[in-house]
Backbone:
């Protein structure tokens, strides 16, 4: 398909000027000619003209007067006028009224003329494209709105508090009920607790259950960036504000305007940055780096930290005034070891999630595996538990996740701290013989689970004969493993 050339209407009462303009333009444009305003208007009635190029001085109607009519009836046509030097002031007076794109002074130069008309053709193309886009957007607006609404509803369902995995007797039940009540109250919330306990999930649930659910939810890890980059991320910057700032940047506060922002690891920020953040929270406005004016923002701030900010404030490492601004309502999220009843349910959920990603379906967790999981203290909380489930899924030979594939530290259910052995002994009850028997039984079971109940290998590792091992297993009720 041959690409159509841009169309231009040349209006000039002098035949020689018409021909000179035609010869100059005909390689790049489809050229129409007219000797006066009436003939030009007739051509415009029947042809699609993108550019009107007219002389100013013509018998009857002047070029500016003609272009006024063109603007009223064919506003999309790009209007250009050519005049002699003596006419320039008259043309300037009519530029706004006639909407003239450009005017050229005689004698015109071919290169200048072509450059001007190529620019006019590009302008005409962009105008037409904008009109098509406007129509498309108007047509698509209901569909886009429906899709946005569907996505918002899907996110709200995904992060709903009742989907947070927990047991009927979990301490998380009271916490989730509290978060549900706070969602409707537009106040700052500070989530505290160890890494991996689900603070971000609670922050998302807070947002999607709040009146701000239709707007953005934005997350920034404050401990991952130095001050200048963190300020740029949150507040934005103007081009040239610092080395490497090659263009303007809209900060996350502006992107979250009307919505919610989670400032994760807020305890890692410097005192200098804390001052700037405090001003933003107090005044409800930001100043991008390098900007001379502030911008108003309306953002609900949820902060999260694994530090004790009150203690940090007393030590002078965190501003107390900022703490009270952030902690209008502090919520502590308990670690996994304080809610062992949740561990089997979370592990099962993670197994289902992993299986769906791998195209597999895993069997229910065995009592042996559940016992190993609940015995571990989980310093990494849910993140660490997820890694263990992924490890077992990767090593599983069938549909069952095996305790034998747990990490050695989890399998032994021993803390990584120096007090692990003392914690183990403290959990044993009875006289010395009873405690030693319980400890021996535990060592035997751990060894057998790790070796997938291969009794020959277990006997070799423990320095026992197979008969001796069997006798101990019978004694401790482990022979059925």
Residues:
């Amino acid at each position: 398909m041959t690409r159509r050339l841009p169309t231009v209407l040349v209006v000039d009462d002098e035949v020689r000027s018409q021909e000179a303009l035609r010869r100059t333009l005909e390689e790049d444009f489809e050229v129409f000619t007219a000797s006066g305003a009436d003939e030009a208007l007739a051509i415009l009635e029947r042809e699609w003209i993108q550019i009107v190029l007219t002389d100013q001085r013509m018998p009857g109607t002047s070029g500016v007067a003609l272009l006024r009519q063109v603007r009223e009836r064919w506003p999309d046509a790009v209007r250009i006028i050519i005049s002699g030097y003596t006419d320039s002031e008259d043309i300037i007076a009519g530029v706004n009224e006639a909407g003239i794109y450009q005017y050229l002074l005689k004698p015109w130069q071919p290169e200048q003329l072509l450059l001007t008309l190529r620019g006019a053709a590009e302008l005409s193309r962009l105008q037409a494209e904008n009109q098509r886009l406007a129509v498309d957007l108007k047509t698509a607006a209901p569909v886009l709105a429906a899709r946005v609404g569907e996505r918002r509803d899907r996110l709200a369902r995904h992060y709903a508090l009742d989907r947070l995995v927990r047991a009927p007797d979990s301490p998380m039940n009271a916490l989730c009920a509290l978060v549900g009540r706070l969602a409707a109250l537009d106040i700052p919330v500070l989530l505290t607790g160890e890494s991996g306990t689900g603070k971000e999930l609670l922050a998302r649930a807070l947002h999607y259950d709040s009146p701000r659910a239709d707007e953005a939810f934005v997350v920034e890890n404050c401990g991952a960036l130095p001050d200048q980059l963190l300020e740029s991320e949150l507040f934005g910057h103007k081009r040239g504000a610092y080395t490497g700032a090659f263009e303007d940047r809209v900060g996350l506060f502006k992107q979250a305007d009307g919505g919610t922002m989670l400032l994760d690891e807020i305890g890692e920020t410097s005192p200098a940055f804390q001052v700037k953040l405090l001003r933003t929270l107090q005044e409800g406005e930001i100043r991008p780096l390098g900007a001379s004016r502030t911008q108003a923002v309306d953002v609900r701030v949820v902060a999260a930290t694994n530090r004790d900010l009150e203690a940090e404030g007393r030590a002078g490492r965190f501003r107390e005034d900022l703490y009270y601004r952030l902690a209008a309502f502090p919520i502590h999220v308990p670690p996994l070891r304080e809610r062992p009843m949740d561990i089997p349910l979370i592990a099962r959920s993670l197994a289902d999630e992993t299986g769906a990603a791998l195209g597999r379906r895993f069997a229910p967790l065995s009592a042996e595996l559940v016992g190993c999981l609940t015995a571990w203290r989980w310093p990494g909380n849910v993140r660490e538990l997820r890694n263990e489930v992924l490890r077992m899924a990767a090593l599983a030979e069938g549909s069952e996740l095996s305790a034998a594939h747990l990490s050695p530290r989890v399998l032994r259910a021993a803390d990584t701290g120096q007090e692990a052995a003392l914690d183990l002994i403290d959990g044993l009850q009875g006289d010395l013989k009873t405690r030693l028997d319980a400890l021996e039984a535990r060592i035997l079971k751990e060894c057998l689970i790790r070796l997938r109940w291969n009794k020959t290998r277990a006997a070799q590792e423990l320095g026992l004969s197979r008969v001796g091992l069997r006798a101990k297993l019978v004694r401790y009720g482990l022979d059925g493993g």
User: Anything to note?
Assistant: The radius of gyration is 38 Å. The chain has a mean pLDDT of 85. The CA atoms of residues 71 and 99 lie 7 Å apart. The chain is about 50% helix and 10% strand.
